[in-house]
Automatic annotation (TrEMBL):
Swiss-Prot/TrEMBL GO biological process terms: ATP synthesis coupled electron transport; electron transport coupled proton transport
Keyword annotations: Electron transport, Membrane, Mitochondrion, NAD, Respiratory chain, Transmembrane, Transmembrane helix, Transport, Ubiquinone
Uppermost EC category: translocase
Protein name: NADH-ubiquinone oxidoreductase chain 4
Higher taxonomy: Eukaryota, Metazoa, Placozoa
Its biological purpose: Core subunit of the mitochondrial membrane respiratory chain NADH dehydrogenase (Complex I) that is believed to belong to the minimal assembly required for catalysis. Complex I functions in the transfer of electrons from NADH to the respiratory chain. The immediate electron acceptor for the enzyme is believed to be ubiquinone. Core subunit of the mitochondrial membrane respiratory chain NADH dehydrogenase (Complex I) which catalyzes electron transfer from NADH through the respiratory chain, using ubiquinone as an electron acceptor. Essential for the catalytic activity and assembly of complex I.
GO MF annotations in UniProt: NADH dehydrogenase (ubiquinone) activity; NADH dehydrogenase activity; ubiquinone binding
Topology with respect to the bilayer: Multi-pass membrane protein
Catalytic activity: a ubiquinone + NADH + 5 H(+)(in) = a ubiquinol + NAD(+) + 4 H(+)(out)
Pfam families: Proton_antipo_M
GO cellular component: mitochondrial membrane
Amino acid sequence: MNWVLSTLLFLPPFVGVFHLLVAGSIRGSIRGRRILRIRIRRIAPGSLKRIALFWSFFSLIGTIILWLSLDQEGGLTPLMKIDWIEGPDKILPIIMGGPLVFAVDGISIYFLILTAFIVPCSILISWNSIKYLVKSFLICMLVLEFLLYAVFSVLDIFWFYILFEGVLIPMYLILGIWGSREEKMQAAYYFFFYTLIGSVIMLLCLFSLYNIHGTTDYLTLVSSNYIVPENLQERLFLGIFLAMAVKIPIFPFHIWLPKAHVEAPVAGSVLLAGILLKLGGYGLVRLSWPILPLGAQNLAPAIIAMGIIGIVYGSFGTCRQIDVKRLVAYSSVAHMGLASITLVTHDIIGLTGSIFIMLAHGIVSSLLFILVTILYDRHHTRLIKYYRGLSISMPIWATIMIMTSLANIAAPPSSGFVGEYLSILSSFNWNPMVGVFVCSGVILSAVYSFYFANRITFGVPGNLLTFSRDVNRREFYITASMVLLAFFAGVCPAFILEVIQNSLFFFAL
């Protein structure tokens, strides 16, 4: 076990939470048994934000060092093993009686890097918008980062479920407390209720796997995946898929997503679009083909049909939106529908393309939410009909918006182009008609993306909106870095694709 790498990954968010908790000091004077005076020195919100930002950047550096130390052949790079639940005096149930192992490979490392990159961007973009309970908000952000690190690196499916559910708690608080409008509690309830129902069904399936194999260790389940009968594999895979479909989300399990995005603060929308929606795709990669190959193979046509409906429905639903945030939210339904199709084709090209789509979407969709939030902060409306000619009043913002729209439609050389090209190729290999529907989704994405970008950036400015300042330095650094990352991964995708494919050969195929 490599304790140096595990320290670089898990210690910064943990220390950051502790640092925020003890920030500030209590001073007093005591004479005998009497307390004469107690004074609590408050710490400025800006100092709290700098503390959280420092530890989030330190965590990003740790994930990059972990990436450089990765096994390039696709095997696991061990981080740590916790043996405190072993022995005759177990304090936890027998289903959790084995050692708890954390490790990373070519699949999980890029989700870790995505998490480490999105969290400091979320803190920076919400620097001025969070004005109350600042310490609690920052603690939720760092706790969420720690839980996501654990989800993407744990090698026990039962602990995966526990951490998967643990992510709900800080995100529920971010939605319900720091939401932007009056319906924020209803949005938080939708988010928690939908995810919890799907996860309970997955828990029953995990219990069934434990009854068959006698363990919840991931590597053991992968090495003995054909022990489970075929009819039982179908039922277990269906239960796991329902939980992941809510999280992705794909049609018809997407109802909670637009409401959550509309009501969430900017950091909540960025975290939802950038990381939390990828938990479902990551779970399918880990739990479908490696553990339940027959069930995934038999149910693949039904899942592909749902993905096709999601692509078409999500695209047409995006075209009819009048709210800029709802438009970006519905576009996520269409993009993740494409990712779900290629996840079940059981093809190395499709699986690689699906993972690449999720990584690209995590950057581009987060950037779109940041841009529309900047627009709302300037003009205090999210209705598309009021915006026109922003290239005159906000030229830097308009330039970044056009580049982001090109990345959103997967125009070369963006990172989305690589993922969608591989996904289309895999779809045609699986069935030509599926490839045709996937291509229609690509065309429709160009329709709504260009309509939105042209409608608000070009033309003569309307009289209802006043001229406002362009992006400031902090906003420019965030958006420009995300644009560069979105296009850099498309220009040089080989170093990402090779590591992902090696790990897919090692586990999923």
